[in-house]
Amino acid sequence: MTDLQITAVRKAYGAGTTVLDGLHLTVPGGSLAAVLGPSGCGKTTLLRIVAGFLRADAGSVTLGGRTLTAPGVHLPPERRRIGIVPQEGALFPHLSVARNVAFGLTGLDRAARRRRADEMLDLVGLSGYGNRMPHELSGGQQQRVALARALAPEPQLVLLDEPFNALDSALRAGVRADVRAALQATGATAVLVTHDQQEALSTADLVAVVRNGRVAQCAAPQDVYHRPADPWVAAFVGDAVIVSGTAAKDEATTPLGRVALAAPPSGLREGLVLLRPEQLRLTDAAADARGTVTDVRFYGHDAMVTVAVDGMDAPVDVRVPGPAPVRPGGRTGVRVTGEGTLHPVPHVRH
Amino acid sequence: MPTPETPAAQDSAAPSRGPAHPAGAPAPAGRRRGRRSAGARPSPALFVPACAAALLAVLPLLYLAVRALERGPAHAWDIVADERTAALLGRSLALTAAVVPACLVLGVSLAWLTVRTALPGARAWSVLVTLPLAVPSYVAAFAWLSAAPGLAGFTGAALALTLVSFPYVYLPVSAALRGTDPAQEEVSRSLGHGPLRTFLRVTLPQLRPAAAGGGLLVALYVLSDFGAVSLMRYDTFTRGIYTSYRASFDRTPAAALSAVLVIMTVALVAAESRTRGRARHSRTGRGTARPAAPAVLGRLRLPALAWCGTVVAVAVAFPLGTLGYWLAVGSSATWDPTTLTDTALTTLGVAAAGAALTTLLALPVGVIAARHRGRAAHLLEQAAYAGHALPGITVALSLVFFAVRYARPLYQELPLLVCAYAVLFLPVAVAATRAAVVQAPPVLEDVARSLGRSPLGALREVTVPLAAPGIAAGAALTFVVCMKELPATLLLRPTGMDTLATRLWTETGAGSFAAAAPYAAALILLAAVPSYLLGRHRT
Amino acid sequence: MRRPLARSLTALAAATLLIPALGACSDEPAGLVIYSGRNENLVGPLIEKLEDSLNTRVEVRYGDSAELSAQLLEEGDETEAGLFLSQDAGALGALSKEGRLAPLPSSTLDEVAPSHRSAAGDWVGVSGRVRVLAYNPDKAATPPDSVHDLVKPEWKGKVGYAPTNASFQAFVTGMRVLEGDDATRTWLKGLKANKPKAYEKNDEVLRAVDEGEVSLGLLNHYYWFAKAAEEGEDKIKARIHFLPEGDPGGLVNVAGVGKLKGADKKQSEYAQKAVDFLLSAESQKHFADETKEYPLAAGVKAANGLPPLDSLQPPKIDLGRLDSLKETLAMLQDVGMV
């Protein structure tokens, strides 16, 4: 299988600006991994090192057992068999759609190239668009052509660099699904670089959260969301409710009441308990925690209610389905369902 | 190009509150992607030919070193340190200081009027205002002098040079104006800035690299010009160099003075690249910007038309009219159409060869200048420019020097003349190539690399085709300046060969202006064709 | 959008194809190559006659005399040229000084008066020109007989001259040789104070005189004859006056010719024949009739309307000493004329 193995990759631009700080990442063959991180976390640098556009200062990259980058080894991009889908597609504006797709097909005769290009356009749902010029396509179509172009030479790995950024949100979900389907159809290993947690969680098989040039957590989307490695990851991949708690066995006592703990900690007693807003319920019945509603935001499919819980410094968010049953200023009870995770209190940040 | 810093992609479907980044999220200084990092070395396939081009361009400097130091450094220093040298330098700089701002005003105003406003006949104007490129400076100067002898001196020299060289500013600035994003101007207007303030604070700063590049070419043109200043009797550095050859038949002072000119050029190029360096990020290169809605001129329509009309009248119509007058009044106008045709064909041939070689040599230098930073890239570009302010005679003599020693079979054959054009006009083509390549997004090269192309393959199949219009524009410009070239052509042409410029020189030298007029007219009309194409470029 | 440029590139490439066709014109190797600082229009017809006379092809590279001499100095022994035809004595003197000219046989030298040839015996004058005073009879009924009169108040603002022109500078150099630097400087200052009008070329000076812009003009004699030929003698108002009695303003300068070292034996022979041809009656007559210059050899008489050269009483001066042009320029710059 064409596993992508990134080992202890380091990259610094000049003195003092370390971008990648010994990053490790393994992407199993055939899966789609998302590299998720805030701007400036080094995810783009990582992508350019994997693609071969940048040289790493240290560390190695192997793909299906082939060494691409290692100390003293730097395979040029054109020999890596890695397809890239840049932001906004970056189609060659001077070539037709078909010639864009066929660009990487060398060593085939003209008819075979054309056939393969048509096949790929078919795969991304753009049959019959071959003779158009890139500027005659919509943004989503351009992005799909860019994918077809990357997939045409049957690369071992496809790198997608924030490919849905430029698309408007209505289009995004559709293109995302098409891209996922096309990748699955070809069985290519893929790495999607993004700073959009929704995109990462909904598209990828595996999410690697990158912070300060290292992978903070790499796991399946649901694990990253529900069992974040630390409060930072929790807050980065979604809305988080963070309360202090004292653990006893597989439960923690918090200002919101008792919370069941997933993966009970060994030896840790005092810490932060992480919950998601949808784990909290508003209740009229007597509850362990009560508070005053300070804000209600309606999103259509659900609503978010902010409650200043009595005895807590920071307010908590509660996600409720449908129209919110409360108004700002009203009193309400809050209770917790499901499991939380317990983490040590960070030394500096909180 | 990707701009990861843009916090635009807050997916509205995600019910997130506030910024997605938790407090205290680390944010190391972001690196712009897409650009080549400082460490990336140009490929040898690019670097080697670029070095060859640069070496050719610095040949005159080697010659100057040999000649200037012939009688010891002390002698050379005496010449350079002479107070007359300082005076000449001052006069040359004064002329440059007058012509460059005038060209900037003309070039920028005309570019704005023809690109961004609802000026009636904007397309026609955009072609007409590039035509002065076709007028040799000596023809312009002669036309003015014969109409108003009182202009002789600083005023006349500044006038003639401004009117022939402002298109060097007009062309890049109008291209840049087409490329700027009108959204920024709209934002400025919405923030309460009037049109003028918006132009000065938002539009103009974005035009600075283009205007500075054009201004540099104008400055070097003014420094190297001999035709206009000699006719206008304004003593400049170049005239000092010529006088040194003519009066004392002495090559040492001429070489020492030329070396000063080279130092001045290097300083100017450095100043220009500083401007460029600061403004590097002004273009985001995000595809094609939406074309701006043309500004309505309103009450300014007539003054704007009058401005364009006046410029075209004095810069194009006037010299052509003067030629027509000579043709009409002179009795020596018994010119031979066959000779004229032959000469015109020869001129086209050598100018085309000159433009082709110059463009070819400029390609690797321009690409490296556009795509790479660092000392080597900088030096290469500097080298291409270094000899550009040298008068043609100096460049020609340096090629005589090297050719008779090391390339005797080429001496006074076409290839050497074509090489001389390349040495003289390399910067013109380098500037055009660099500007064109900068506009081709580097991410496309990355994509091509990932699809199996070597660096050179990516360049050939993606960047060069994309930059082709700009590179062709540079070739057209080079073609025009090659056609007009005189001093190097006189010395290096195959014996017996005539171009329109040498014929024109012969006829005016014999005082038969009526006989000269057809050659001057043919020169202007032929040079007008590429100028016309340049004016239509990207409109 | 990109089409016109694509087309122009194609045109450019197509035009490049013309190049081999250009090279094709030099099919037969030339027996003699001449570098000529004299204008093609003036000597071109003579070169054709020379070709017939030598019975070989003659190639001519036209250029500025001084630039050609710089080129010849750069070329050294590698030069293709066998002969240098110069507009003035100075450029020949510079080559002679650097030892680039081959000696001429005395039979050739003797054709020309010693004052019109190199003292070193390596170049000869082939035609002469005289500095004259052009005047407009409407403005100046009786022109002065000496350039020294031009500093008088009566000519204030009425004199036209071409201070940057080589012919004027040669005249000033002659004046320095004849009268010394101090006297010349005083005269130049006086002239400058008299506010003369400066022009670029002699023919512009003549036009200014003709149109009454100025009353007097300092120039070479043949400009008047050229203008008379182009426009008709009766159509021009200006007349010329030859300055008598050795006045420095009446300097005679020559265009000359020298053989170059470095030419092979065959070409040297052709070059020698060409020198003799230029001094022959046929050529001397050409200069007299076509360029209205003074013939210097073979007993040929000057054109009608020109006073004979030996009647002119020009200043006695060694033309080889006219190469101190640098000092002249410095003086002109000091005075503020150039």
UniProtKB/TrEMBL annotation, chain A:
Residues 321-338 have a biased composition (Low complexity). It is an enzyme of class 7 (translocase). InterPro entries: AAA+_ATPase (IPR003593), ABC_SmlMolc_Importer (IPR050093), ABC_transporter-like_ATP-bd (IPR003439), ABC_transporter-like_CS (IPR017871), Mo/tungstate-bd_C_term_dom (IPR008995), P-loop_NTPase (IPR027417), Transp-assoc_OB_typ2 (IPR013611). Keywords: ATP-binding, Cell inner membrane, Cell membrane, Membrane, Nucleotide-binding, Translocase, Transport. Its EC number is 7.6.2.9. The keyword Translocase applies. Pfam families: ABC_tran, TOBE_2. SMART domains: AAA. Residues 321-350 are annotated as: Disordered. This is ABC-type quaternary amine transporter. GO terms for cellular component: ATP-binding cassette (ABC) transporter complex. Residues 4-237 form the ABC transporter domain. It comes from the Bacteria. One of its GO terms (molecular function) is ABC-type quaternary ammonium compound transporting activity.
From TrEMBL, chain B:
It is a multi-pass membrane protein. It is found in: Cell inner membrane; Cell membrane. It holds the Pfam family BPD_transp_1. GO terms for biological process: transmembrane transport. Residues 12-29 have a biased composition (Low complexity). This is Iron(III) transport system permease protein. Residues 1-40 are annotated as: Disordered. Residues 89-270, 344-534 form the ABC transmembrane type-1 domain. CDD domains: TM_PBP2. PANTHER family: FE(3+)-TRANSPORT SYSTEM PERMEASE PROTEIN FBPB 2, INNER MEMBRANE ABC TRANSPORTER PERMEASE PROTEIN YDCV. GO terms for cellular component: plasma membrane. Keywords: Cell inner membrane, Cell membrane, Membrane, Transmembrane, Transmembrane helix, Transport. The chain crosses the membrane at residues 45-66, 86-113, 125-145, 151-171, 210-232, 252-271, 304-328, 348-370, 382-402, 414-437, 458-481, 513-534. Belongs to the binding-protein-dependent transport system permease family. Its main location: membrane.
Automatic annotation (TrEMBL), chain C:
Transmembrane segments: none annotated. The keyword Cell membrane does not apply. Fe cation binds at Y222, Y223. Keywords: Ion transport, Iron, Iron transport, Metal-binding, Signal, Transport. Residues 1-26 form the signal peptide. One of its GO terms (biological process) is iron ion transport. One of its GO terms (molecular function) is metal ion binding. It holds the Pfam family SBP_bac_6. GO terms for cellular component: outer membrane-bounded periplasmic space. Belongs to the bacterial solute-binding protein 1 family. This is Iron(III) transport system substrate-binding protein. It comes from Streptomyces wuyuanensis.
